[in-house]
């Protein structure tokens, strides 16, 4: 018997196209009413970006979800976004935290532990403020002690920066510190290996999406000024 298979019948039984799981991470620095440098973001700009992402049905991830994605043991919903902050600026506590809390959005704040509470230059959050951030759902991560360019340090210096920062943060905040961000996003094979001794994952600042089984010690993040490009890369 001659069996004729039509294109329509093939399409009817073909499985739907499944896109690989991916996410984006955005990294912000200071939130301040008056911008002084390129990485500054005003409260109005930050709230506008959050509002827009919500209107596009973004799923705001916890770092644990991203950790599971890159480890290959979990997936994430479409349009997944991780919000991160660098440098422990007090502007985060004053301006960004109320917006994130009001919208129930998780985030990560990466801290250089040697400058906690410093009033010099741009004020940094105190230990009390960091503890309050944690109570409100913020995950605290390490960004070394001194924020020196870690790729320019010796192996022992890099290890000490990572270990001491983790120890100081854990001692003062009474919580495990499992996530790390390279100062200014700079890293290499040696610093990735060093980070793996103390942290579960580490974040860089490469401007590409996070994919399933991405390098867990070089997780990419877009600087916040590239948030529109990040969204396009995520959804195309």
Written overview of the protein:
- This protein has about 240 residues and is α/β, with parallel strands linked by helices.
- It has a single domain (about 20-235), classed as TIM Barrel.
- The protein contains 8 helices and 9 strands.
- The strands form 2 sheets. Strands 1, 2, 3, 4, 5, 8 and 9 form a 7-stranded mixed sheet that branches. It has a two-stranded parallel ribbon with strand order 6-7.
- Strand 3, helix 4 and strand 4 (about 105-110) form a beta-alpha-beta unit.
- Helix 6 packs parallel to helix 7.
Quaternary state of the chains: single chain
CATH class: Alpha Beta
* Cα-atom radius of gyration: 20 Å
Classify the fold: give the CATH topology.
TIM Barrel
The portion of residues assigned to helices is: 25-40%
Shape: globular
Count of DSSP H/I helices: 8
Q: Any idea what the CATH architecture is?
A: Alpha-Beta Barrel
Specify the CATH homologous superfamily.
Answer: Glycoside hydrolase/deacetylase
The major beta sheet can be summarized as: 7 strands, mixed
- Beta strand %: 15-25%
């Amino acid at each position: 018997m001659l069996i004729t298979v039509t294109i329509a019948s093939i399409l009817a039984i073909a499985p739907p196209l499944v896109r690989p799981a991916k996410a984006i991470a955005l990294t912000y620095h200071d939130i301040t009413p008056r911008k002084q440098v390129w990485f500054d973001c005003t409260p109005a700009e930050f709230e506008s970006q959050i509002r827009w992402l919500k209107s596009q049905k973004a799923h705001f991830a916890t770092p644990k979800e991203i950790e599971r994605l890159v480890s290959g043991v979990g997936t994430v919903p479409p349009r997944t976004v991780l919000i991160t902050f660098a440098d422990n600026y007090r502007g985060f506590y004053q301006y960004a935290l109320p917006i994130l809390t009001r919208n129930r959005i998780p985030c990560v704040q990466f801290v250089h532990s040697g400058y906690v509470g410093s009033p010099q230059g741009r004020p940094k959050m105190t230990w009390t403020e960091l503890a309050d951030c944690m109570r409100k759902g913020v995950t605290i991560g390490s960004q070394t002690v001194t924020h020196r360019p870690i790729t320019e340090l010796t192996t022992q210096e890099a290890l000490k920066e990572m270990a001491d920062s983790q120890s100081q943060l854990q001692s003062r905040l009474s919580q495990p510190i499992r996530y790390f961000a390279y100062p200014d996003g700079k890293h290499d094979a040696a610093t990735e290996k060093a980070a793996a001794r103390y942290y579960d994952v580490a974040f860089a600042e490469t401007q590409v999406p996070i994919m399933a089984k991405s390098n867990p010690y070089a997780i990419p993040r877009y600087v916040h000024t590239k948030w529109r490009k990040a969204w396009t890369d995520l959804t195309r």
